[in-house]
Amino acid sequence: xxxxxxxxxxxxxxxxxxxxxxxxxxxxxxxxxxxxxxxxxxxxxxxxxxxxxxxxxxxxxxxxxxxxxxxxxxxxxxxxxxxxxxxxxxxxxxxxxxxxxxxxxxxxxxxxxxxxxxxxxxxxxxxxxxxxxxxxxxxxxxxxxxxxxxxxxxxxxxxxxxxxxxxxxxxxxxxxxxxxxxxxxxxxxxxxxxxxxxxxxxxxxxxxxxxxxxxxxxxxxxxxxxxxxxxxxxxxxxxxxxxxxxxxxxxxxxxxxxxxxxxxxxxxxxxxxxxxxxxxxxxxxxxxxxxxxxxxxxxxxxxxxxxxxxxxxxxxxxx
Length: 319
Prior knowledge:
Blueprint: E1 11-14, H1 21-51, H2 58-87, E2 91-93, H3 94-127, H4 132-135, H5 138-164, E3 173-174, H6 181-187, H7 193-207, H8 209-227, H9 232-260, H10 269-293, H11 296-318
Parallel strand pairs: 1-3
Antiparallel strand pairs: 1-2
């Protein structure tokens, strides 16, 4: 039901990906499959890193945090597609909507910051390998991780306050599969100039450009060092390690720039919705696949744990 010039909206309707029943069923199965793979992959990686002392290194410490972020971000954004299809209830309260926006944008900022921390870790490992363990000690890793979590949380607070203060909406239907800030701003007839200015300035200077610039600078030094390596095998190994991180960085930054760093009036909500689905569904799957499942250290950890389980099972059967 459309609402014209409403002064107060207490709930919104999430329209989802499509109104077609058959397509809704297909989207439900696809999202369920993606979500289960995301959960399974990231939980497996997190447990392996916790249990296997061979993976107690800075790179895998940051990767464990990244797995928590991917699980949280997928759960926050994809759950409405799954629950609304099963229950038929596609409504969401205004407070729940504001909290979802806050959580999604905070977690996204956290992910960009952790990717930056991982780029610094790779910089130290490749450019200063002899002092790697002295520089990337547990104290520095804990400090970097804490800063990433806190900064991401602080970046989302002004957006939460700005969204929750919006009172006038031309409609209560959100053309998206979760509460995102751009569709809400398009619906609002309140003054959203602060939100637009904050998204642009925060995204350009702190939340987006600063992590990107730090990552870019790290890779300038990394590539320079790799090119100076005389051994072709050594160069290939170094490039292979960095290409995984670089692939995820490009995918994530590309989708975020298309979604948020444009004037609100020029944004097509339908195309933005598909990019958002890629960002919230595909990227969390890429992380365990690219960073871990193709990594020899993680493969070795899986074999060790499977070997322990097999030996334990065999021992119990003999007894």
